[in-house]
Amino acid sequence: MSSNQTTPEVLWAQRSSKTDPAKNIIFLTISVPDVPQKSMELDLKPTGLTFSGHSDTKKATYHLELEFYDEIDVEESKTNHTARDVELVLRKKDPKEEYWPRLLKESKKVHFLKTDFDKWVDEDEQDAVADDAGNNLDMGGMGGMGGMGGMGGMGGMGGMGGEDGGFGGIDFSKLGAGAGGMGGMGGMPGMEGLGGMGGDEDEDEDDDMPELEDGKGVPKTETGKDVDEVPEAKGETDASATKTAAKIEEVS
Description:
Distance between the termini: 150 Å
Mean pLDDT: 71
Structural class: alpha+beta
Largest sheet: 5 strands, mixed
C-alpha cells in the first residue's frame, strides 16, 4: 500500500501575562484528519515538538517538526486529540506581558503555518477577552464563546410592551360598546384627553339647533330685523284674541 508523507497545516495563536501563568500560553492546532490515536506519536519538548501519524482513509503519513521561538513548560501544557486534529495549549515558560514575535525560532516563513484567527486576539485587547481555553482543553469553539448563546430569539421584546404600557390599559371587552364614534378610547394610555371621540355627533346637534326668536316668538333675519310678516302676524293674533273673548261672553 502506497503512502504519501505530508506536512500538516498548523494554526497558532497566543496570549501573554506576566502575573497569570494560565494566560501566558500558545494555542496550537495540527490538522491531521482521520489519524487515530494509536497511529500517532507526539514528542513535546521545552524547545519544540515532533509529530507523526498515519491515516488509512487519507492514505497519508503526516510528519511535523517545530522549534519554538522560546521555551515552554511541558508539564503545564495540555494536549487533546480529535478526529480532525491535535489541539495543544502550551504554557510559555517565562511570564511576560509581551507576545512572542513569532512561533518559530527561525524568522523565515513556512507555507504550512498560519494564524488561527478564530483564537487570535491583539496584544492590547487580550484583557477584554473572557477566555478560559487554557484551563479547559475541550476547545470546541474555544469555550467561553459557546456559539454566542443567549440570543434566545431576541427574547425580552415582550410584545413590544416597553412603551407606555404596551396597550396594557385597553380593556378589549369594552371596545365593542364604544365603537360608535370611537367612544371608550379612554383606556389607551395618553388618550384621556380625547374623551368619547364623539365630536361628529355634537356637531350634528349644533347644526339642528333652531333659530333664535325675539320676545314675540317671531324669527329674525341674519341682520336682526323683523321679517315682513310681523305686522300681519300681529293682526292675526289680535283677531283671534277678539274672537275668543266673544265666545267666552256667549257662554257666560
